[in-house]
Amino acid sequence: MAETIVIKVGGHASDQLPQQFYQQLTRWQAEGKHILVIHGGGPQISRWSDQMGLTVHKHHGIRVTDAKTLAVTQAVLLGVVQPAICQQFSQHHLHVVGLNTSDNQLLGGEYLDQKEYGEVGQITSVNETWLQEVLHDEIGVLAPLAQTIDGHLLNVNADTAAAAIAAKLGANKLVLLTDVPGVLNAGKVVPLLDQEGADQLFEQKQIKAGMMPKIKAAFNALHDGVHQVLITNDLTSSGTILHRSTKRVAG
User: Fold this and answer.
1) Which pTM does this prediction carry?
2) 85-108 burial, b if ≥16 CB within 10 A, otherwise e?
3) CA–CA gap between residue 9 and residue 159 (Å, rounded)
């Protein structure tokens, strides 16, 4: 069975992907690896929301999403961010296809906490068989939106979505690509991080609110069977490598 690599690309990072990013994807695709890119779009969603007079509010690093914000999120992810990423991939001669939850019931979900976060969800199911067939020939670029059983759309944090999807696919590697070179402690990259070390960084407030969902997602992916999880800004650099622990990040 082909090796599966899941890469989460943030909204900031998607605007400035370096040449080595595409070179690495080209090598992996030539080696027959299945590659799935989960893309965020936080900065773009915030910018469009502001232009429409919508208040941007985050809680524990997760965007609180009402009906209007959900509509903006859907429009920006599928109409702005994803096409731009796919165009960049195509310009680098990579075989790519844009994907979303409506493709063969790709991503099923349920509410995270409707009272606290609104229209925000978590991934509960993935159409794994169909997705692996797609990834056999093309790099998938997938928006982190899920559907409930009755077809209601939910916004899902991209890091959380990437971790859940990687686990469902039994991925060999999950790379959480960000705009910093890894998890930082006093400005320096932490090369190896276990659960206890992460707890200490939380307590010391070295890990900021925006990094919290990423750290939690990373450890959950490890607990759920993903072989290797990295947080980095460069596919050719390991950045921070996460280690398994006996417990999940609290919260």
Assistant:
1) 0.93
2) bbebbeeeebebebbbbebeebbb
3) 9
